[in-house]
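Why 2-isopropylmalate synthase? Reviewers of the renewal asked for a concrete example.
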Amino acid sequence: MADIQIFDTTLRDGEQSPGVNLNKSEKLEIAKQLERLGVDIIEAGFPAASEGDFEAVKLIADSVKHSSVTALARTHQKDIDRAYEALKDTERPRIHIFLATSPIHMEYKLKMTEEEVLNKSVEMVTYAKERFPEVEFSAEDATRSDIDFLCRLIEQVIDAGATVINLPDTVGFTTPYEYGRMFKIISETVPNIDKVNLSCHCHDDLGMAVANSIAAVENGATQVECAVNGIGERAGNAALEEIAVALEIRKDFYPYETSLILNEIKRTSDIVSKLTGMYIQANKAVIGRNAYAHESGIHQDGVLKNAETYEIITPELVGVSENTLFLGKHSGRHAFKDKVMEFKLDLSEDDITTAFKKFKLLTDHKKEVTEDDIYTILMEIKTADTDIPMYKLEDFQVNYGPENGTESEVSLRTPDGRVVSNKTTGSGSVDALYGTIKSLIDMELNLIDYQLNSVGRGKDALAEAHLQLKVDGQVMNGRGSAQDVIEASANAYINAVNRYLIKNTEEKSVSVSS
Ligand SMILES: CC(=O)SCCNC(=O)CCNC(=O)[C@H](O)C(C)(C)COP(=O)(O)OP(=O)(O)OC[C@H]1O[C@@H](n2cnc3c(N)ncnc32)[C@H](O)[C@@H]1OP(=O)(O)O
Ligand SMILES: CC(C)C(=O)C(=O)O
Ligand SMILES: [Mg+2]
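Here is what the prediction returned.
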């Protein structure tokens, strides 16, 4: 077993990032990639929070084989029962129970005394242990808790059957020295601490989540909780890729092994970024676009003479490669399939046929089809895997008119198979287009956020639009790509509406059958 267990919370704490809203198939794609990355534990969600979360955790638990799957629960029997229902068929189930231990959380949020928190924790760990072989207990807001109370509580929940004790820095308040000292005190004071794995869970409010996690490891933590691209509540969680690469590059200093397959990092980061719509800043450590670029003359000169003058991480280590050319206009299905299999996605023959058709269409317009383009196509196919009737863009036209406004005409196929059309005017191309689509859909639609990016470089790069749309009061993310920016924008808008239909149809069918 590796010295440090990697507990990935991208699908739970990561999904708590404002505006992130993944559906079941998107969560499954991310979970499978986390498994390929070699994470030890995947926190798949919070089953008691919603039917959608329950379904996603169950799907992941039933599909993932090489990582342990866990789910979050409050100290309520019904949360633990719900987690048990979702996880019971996975090979290595773990429950993750939490309760806050800081004075401010106990007094104002929970309205409980120290003794009540202690007794409830013991009671629920005991209850969970009758159902799960692995029980993780988190003392929420541990870094603002009284250390003597924390030690007393930890000792008792270990006696009740906890196998992992997590000490979260819930509000990103601590510093490396202070957090390390807390782990040291707990390791030296709690008499039965050697029976459990100690875990850290850091938030990045003061920009110290990764440094704090490493300080915890230096002081006895054997599990690190983190999220891909550092996503998570508020400023996010400690970034998995930064912790993994820091431990690897500085192994002279940190002699700890993890079971991560480092050259899967870039692929994992790309999937998470694409599906969550959370873009990665160019200068982000390890996976940012500029992380391996050398701009200034003296640096370029040094790198040409010896790359190690300015490069401590090689791009290959984390799977960053030149965005290589894919196949061309004259490629056949066999060669295409061979190349596509290199992405290691779980693709059916139907998926490959659909992807091949889209690839051929693209080669009609785009001179250079890259791996990124194909990846975008494959991700769209993988995550739109549903029989639920949806809206489809049939045709559109936008006529830019600076004086009388821009005119847009759109034809949509509705979920019940009709084709509806309308023409409206707006203040710009996207405004006009969205106004027309909105007029064709009988729901309350309000655009909250819209972003446009290019996939890859060059004038014929694919455009990728991401947006947030309030659909009948629920905030939905939408994503669309196309070679044309207007078409990508239309696809993203319709995608958000369709995601709403999928979410609500799935939730309805679950509550009818349960
Ligand atoms: C630090 C973290 O990341 S914690 C995880 C945060 N994640 C989430 O909250 C997931 C999304 N949440 C939800 O969907 C909802 O909040 C639910 C379904 C979990 C609960 O919804 P509701 O029942 O409507 O309660 P609401 O969210 O308003 O308030 C939370 C309640 O849980 C209580 N609570 C909070 N933490 C815990 C805990 N660990 N154990 C037991 N009760 C808790 C609060 O005190 C409050 O109780 P109250 O209603 O008696 O005042
Ligand atoms: C639920 C716990 C582990 C959490 O996310 C936090 O305290 O930040
Ligand atoms: Mg957290």
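The pocket of 3-methyl-2-oxobutanoic acid (ligand 2) is lined by residues 13, 72, 98, 138, 140, 166, 168, 170, 201, 203 (CB under 6 Å). This is the kind of structural detail the renewal will allow us to pursue systematically.
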